[in-house]
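Key result, reporting period 2: structure in, sequence out.
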């Protein structure tokens, strides 16, 4: 098989058999961990699989065997309220389906390596990938997976995607605080220079400058705690302490996540101050608890996105989806509650 053929087409079991100079049935036995294949032959087949970057089409295999299919959901972590909202949507969509759900914790520190290791196991029929995968590092691998992939939170050429534009979301949050009369507004963010952080900082800055206010980077802070990539109650608490310690304190704060805002709320209380009378707060994500404590937030509608993304993945598995790749921009909404409203 020519190099041009290898690069332009996804490798099949026939290509593996040809490269290893064995029968297709032998490749199949190796893939199924059969013990009746000689070790040198097994090594030759596995070498061909690695060289061709072959991954078995488990969807076709399972359909032929009438076995239960498996959907994998890969998330940076499944212990945060934000990702729990998404997973609830996935679960609700699969409630009536004969589908096994497999969770993959991508690890904030090394998501690409973790995902690659997970994909090498070839244990799922479809993948719901939550995050912003790199086009250069993962795009080709995901497109050549041999199973449908739906991305939530990013755009990858050739793959179905549900994504947000965080710049107008941040502008909504800060614009609301400006409408409430605040002119010195702090921002609680994360320490990492990434797409999400940069987009929300850009929206924060745009809202201020469009209102005729000077952008002051000293009013952007993050906590020391790095758990969950900085999206935690602890980091929000620490960041708010820094804002409270300024010589000229802010009167309002926009947090990049609801959990950070909850931590900030506690820091304000410990100073003997009140929200919103002394400090106004706006979060981001609109997790369930925010609706009960009265936290104003930017809703990303994660539960609905989880349902819709899973529904599309099921359509792809059943070959009933749209012909074209779907890229859907999810609408963001400002949910106004007591934490940001000035007393009348």
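The corresponding designed sequence is given below.
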């Amino acid at each position: 098989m020519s190099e041009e053929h290898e690069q332009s087409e996804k490798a099949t079991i026939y290509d593996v058999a040809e490269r290893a100079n064995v029968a297709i049935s032998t490749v199949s036995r190796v893939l199924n961990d059969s013990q009746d294949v000689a070790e040198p032959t097994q090594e030759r087949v596995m070498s061909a699989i690695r060289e061709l970057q072959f991954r078995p089409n488990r969807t076709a295999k399972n359909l032929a065997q009438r076995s239960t299919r498996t959907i994998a959901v890969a998330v940076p972590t499944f212990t945060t309220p934000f990702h729990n909202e998404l997973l609830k949507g996935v679960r609700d969509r699969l409630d009536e389906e004969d589908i096994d759900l497999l969770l993959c914790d991508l690890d904030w520190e090394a998501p690409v390596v973790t995902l690659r290791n997970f994909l090498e196991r070839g244990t799922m029929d479809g993948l719901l990938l939550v995050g912003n995968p790199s086009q250069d590092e993962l795009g080709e691998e995901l497109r050549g997976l041999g199973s449908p992939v739906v991305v939530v939170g990013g755009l990858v050429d050739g793959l179905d995607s549900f994504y947000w534009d965080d710049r107008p979301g941040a502008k909504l949050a800060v614009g609301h605080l400006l409408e409430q009369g605040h002119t010195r507004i702090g921002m609680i963010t994360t320490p990492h220079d990434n797409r999400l952080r940069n987009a929300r900082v850009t929206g924060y800055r745009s809202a201020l400058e469009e209102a005729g206010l000077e952008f002051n980077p000293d009013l952007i802070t993050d906590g020391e705690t790095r758990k969950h990539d900085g999206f935690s109650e602890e980091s929000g608490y620490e960041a708010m302490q820094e804002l409270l310690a300024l010589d000229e304190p802010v009167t309002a704060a926009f947090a990049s996540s609801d959990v950070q805002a909850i931590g900030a709320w506690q820091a304000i209380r410990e100073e003997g101050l009140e929200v919103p009378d002394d400090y106004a707060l706006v979060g981001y994500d609109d997790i369930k608890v925010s609706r009960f404590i009265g936290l104003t937030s930017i809703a990303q509608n994660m539960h609905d996105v989880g349902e819709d993304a899973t529904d599309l993945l099921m359509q792809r598995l059943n070959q009933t989806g749209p012909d074209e790749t779907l890229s859907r921009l999810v609408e963001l909404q400002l949910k106004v509650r007591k934490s940001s409203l000035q007393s009348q």
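The chain has a mean pLDDT of 85. Residues 190 and 204 are 14 Å apart (CA to CA). This case is discussed further under Risks and Mitigation.
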